[in-house]
Design a protein that fits this description.
about 190 residues, two-stranded antiparallel ribbon, 6 strands
Length: about 190
């Protein structure tokens, strides 16, 4: 627990950080909580003089009421954002399903999937390469991609994936989400 000296020192630091000409004399922080989850803080600072007491109960109650209303607003706005994202994703899925329902050509269906997945996940590119489990090899003629130059795709098709390489490592692990390609655990991606 902080003592009065530590509190005063932190108020001075905060005042400097905020660029205030006068130091904060008191600070009221009300957590914005939804259930047990904190979604923010309502901070109120006072530059009051010594004659006035810091944040009377009436002001604390008002700040608490404002915080409660702010929580409702934050929760509604986040719900709205999630709903909008879900709507966009559903529109992409519907578009892909509609395109695939009328298609009888596997390559066309796979191309539609790569386009929709790329858009839905806001990726720079997307590709699907079919794999034949019986022959234990990828099928070059079934490689489809979106936003990958044709010459790169052709070069990629000619280089049959090798055991221990990217494709096989991913098949063994199930899937890989790479946050940093230069991380030691993803050395096999740089080979």
């Amino acid at each position: 627990k902080w003592n009065d000296e530590q509190i005063q020192l932190n108020l001075v630091r905060l005042s400097r950080w905020l660029g205030l000409e006068q130091d904060l004399r008191s600070l009221l922080i009300v957590p914005l909580k939804i259930g047990k989850r904190v979604v923010g803080l309502l901070d109120l600072g006072e530059l009051r003089n010594d004659e006035r007491s810091s944040f009377p109960n009436k002001e604390i109650e008002l700040a608490t009421a404002i915080a409660a209303q702010t929580i409702v607003l934050i929760d509604r706005m986040r719900f709205h954002e999630i709903t909008e994202r879900n709507k966009i994703e559903l529109e992409h899925l519907h578009k892909a399903a509609k395109a695939m329902s009328g298609a009888f050509d596997l390559k066309h269906v796979l191309q539609t999937i790569t386009e929709q997945v790329k858009d839905m996940l806001q990726a720079d590119s997307s590709a699907i390469w079919s794999y034949d489990n019986i022959r234990d090899k990828f099928i070059p003629e079934e490689l489809v991609a979106t936003s990958i130059p044709d010459q790169e795709l052709e070069r990629f098709k000619e280089e049959e994936p090798k055991s221990g390489g990217i494709a096989y490592t991913i098949m063994e692990k199930g899937w890989i989400g790479v946050t940093d390609i230069y991380s030691p655990e993803f050395e096999f991606l740089r080979q």
